[in-house]
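Researcher: Next sequence.
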Amino acid sequence: MTTNGLHPLEALLRERIVFLDGAMGTMIQQYKLSETEYRGKRFREWKGKDLKGSLELLNLTLPHVVEEIHTAYLDAGADVIETNTFSGTTIGLHDFLFQGEPTRGRKDQEFFQRVVDDVDLRALVHELNLEAARIARRAADRVANETGQQRFVGGSMGPLPVAGSISPDVNDPAFRAVSFDQLRQTYFDEAKALLEGGVDLLIVETIFDTLNGKAALFAITDAFEETGRKVPLMISGTVIDKSGRNLSGQTVEASLISVAHAQPLILGLNCSLGPDEMEQFVEELARTSPYYMSAYPNAGLPDPLSPTGFPETAETFAPKVAKWAENGWLNVVGGCCGTTPDHIRALAKLTQKFSPRAVERNARFT
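Model: Next structure:
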């Protein structure tokens, strides 16, 4: 579907600021689910590590919980909801779901080759990504029909517990636990299932290692070709501290240049830092990027004494982020860790009066 030759999402981006949802994990934690609930009937006899904390597994065992959370964000004003697939890859879920031969000593490329090639794990990852997309699609379409306003589903492709450009062993800086091809393969499985499930766009987010992000982008190209379906792409990096660099050492501008070959519809920053700490980097990227700009920070820096684990409430978070919209920096805005539907509702209320950042593009999608 297109609008005057544009994808409907881009048409909306030209019209106004678009609202993204908030944290899935923060909301799931509020349900205080037990190990038994995570397992459900299907995984009741699962052998190995406990499954509590495997958020993506809830797409199969407690899909109504995931759908309730999607609906809460849609009711709060989100135009785009993200699938519950942030760690939904074979590598991302291997600690919970890989039942192959364990490694002796440190995890290396030989071990992760077994992970990405494991037939049962790949089938399970495909299923949970497919169901995640269907759950979000169902919620988005229902609310769209009720309100008369189109809602979009973004396929969330988050970071991995390993990095392609960084050694996990300080005593062996040349060591790499995974290869680029392994990263590409694990992301391909996820992207393919999300596309088959009917997402409107793919979101490669929280990129802390640019090489990991590039592997995801190559995998998405493969998935487009394999499925015969192409959707808009959103890329979101993260800076790890006030130096403004990601974990692999790149500045915001360097990261932009490194992923520009993918020609994303939207590019921005998320996670890691709260609105106070992230502001200067959002401004920098808004000044240099030729793409639609997104920003969805954490609700402040982690604080274990706060109810959500992060200190910024909806009342303190929204005015800080809305200022970025007032400054003309944003096209897409939402929240990351520690944010809830209340944060998105407050943010939408304050931000909707501001015009979107002007972008000259001729993006086309089929």
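Model: The first strand starts at residue 18 and ends at 19. The CA atoms of residues 91 and 98 lie 9 Å apart.
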